[in-house]
Amino acid sequence: MADPKGFLTTKREVPTRRSVDVRILDWKEVYKEQTFENLQKQAGRCMDCGIPFCHQGCPLGNLIPEWNDLTWRGDKREAIARLHATNNFPEFTGRLCPAPCETACVVAINTDPVTIKQVELRIVEEAFKDGLITPLAPDRLSGKTIAVVGSGPAGLAAAQQLTRAGHTVAVYERADKIGGLMRYGIPEFKMEKSILDRRISQMEAEGTRFRPGIDIGTEITGHQLRSRYDAVVLAIGATQWRELPIEGRELKGIYQAMEYLPWGNKQALGEVVNPEIDVKGKHVVILGGGDTGADCLGTAIRQGAASATQLEIMPRPSDERPSAHPWPMYPMIFRISSAHEELDNRIFSVSTQKFIGDENGNVRALQLIETCFVNGTFEPVPGTEKEIPADAVFLAMGFTGPEKSQLLTQLAVDLDERGNIKRDESYQTSSDGVFVCGDAGRGQSLIVWAIAEGRSAASAVDRHLSGRTQLPSPISPFARPLMV
Fold it and tell me: For the residues 183-195, what does the mean pLDDT come to?
């Protein structure tokens, strides 16, 4: 183990965030860099448990006690080797994952957990800084070709694994740049896009080919794709957003979150000066209390919104782990993101009844009503109606599955009862040679599940094409998290 008494003598310490009054003036990441020496002390809190429950908290099967010990000892080269053995992109998960591994940490039974997520992030950043991460090109080529449709974390993980196995892989992305929601849905203050570009450069040097700006299904049909490639991997995500069909939805100024967030990223990177959706000086209301809603909040703050209110139909979670979510489950507790630290104006247990417009057809207010949860449904509380001003409204209520595009029809893939792409134990769809991984098959989920599925699907594709595989397969397509 690392420091035998570390969990007793060292308190949990995470990196500090830049002061609010400074960071809201730019789009840079909110955290200050933690010194490696301080990080070593945090890694030394790991107990190297006989049964490391942090492993079951992570679908990637990260070797957490091993790289905690290596970090504590200062062996950066071996630490990144053990981290990369299970995770292609720890610089993504170290920034974007909610860290179910930490809520499953044995130390967390009666005290604060090990800062697993931060140790992971610093391992990979130290490795990049020291030149320990280089392209891993295959020794030989198999002669097999694979198309990966979608360039989010699942698609990139599948592509990198298959490229390293010797196959020729082309990644298709309908947006202008590679990265999927990591590029267009994750704000710059949570992950600067130079981090994404750095890894894409490594993949290009390894031999992965990227084809952005091509809409598969229209510019290239599914039939053409099947004729050109030996296998196809669908990693198109669950981008069909949830709607709110109530009175006034047609008013101008009401947008889906994913209509808004890309403009914030373009503005942050200087790609546009005047974004099409800009809330400077406006009263903003965000429907949805999750991470996407918080991303809209942080973006609105940086654009100079006059006010921002976030609405959530669920009641406010408790501050302590509820009895319904015992360790090592991921608990539903009250959390404060960096955006909420900047402005926390959340209203819980409310439902939007209608949007109210002005004489020009623009939204000007929302009518809300308080709700209570009764027999599995949210019931309105009579007499609690009220209006709040709104010049711009963003719907951040989640996603319902993959878009039902022409591509799915052209490839003749079946859907399951939840509207996701149906697959078997080998991640293969009902169409021979067509595989699916990530949110398109699982449904909306976490980045760690996307990467794990991409790695597992790559193993299945490699076996399908070669008859055998040495690629790891972390999870079954039917595995479910120990989370609520």
Answer: 96
> H or E element: which one contains 7?
helix 6-9
Whether this model's pTM surpasses 0.90: yes
Please spell the DSSP secondary structure of 351-407, one letter per residue: EEEEEEE-TTSBEEEEEEEEEEEETTEEEE-TT--EEEE-SEEEE---B-SS---HH
Q: Are 216 and 224 in contact (CB under 8 A)?
A: no
* Residues 101, 171: Cα–Cα separation, whole Å: 30
Strands 209-212 and 392-395: unpaired
- Tell me the mean pLDDT in the region 1-5: 77
User: How large is the average pLDDT for residues 298-309?
Assistant: 98
**Does residue 135 lie in a domain region?**
no
Same domain, 210 and 269: no
CATH no. for residue 36? 1.10.1060.10
Q: How many Cβ atoms sit within 10 Å of the Cβ of residue 417? A: 6
Q: 456-476 burial, b if ≥16 CB within 10 A, otherwise e?
A: bbbbbbbebbeeebebebbbe
- Asked if 11 and 112 count as a contact pair (C-beta separation under 8 A), the reply is yes
Of the chain, the percentage scoring pLDDT greater than 90 comes to: 93
d(CA 110, CA 108): 5
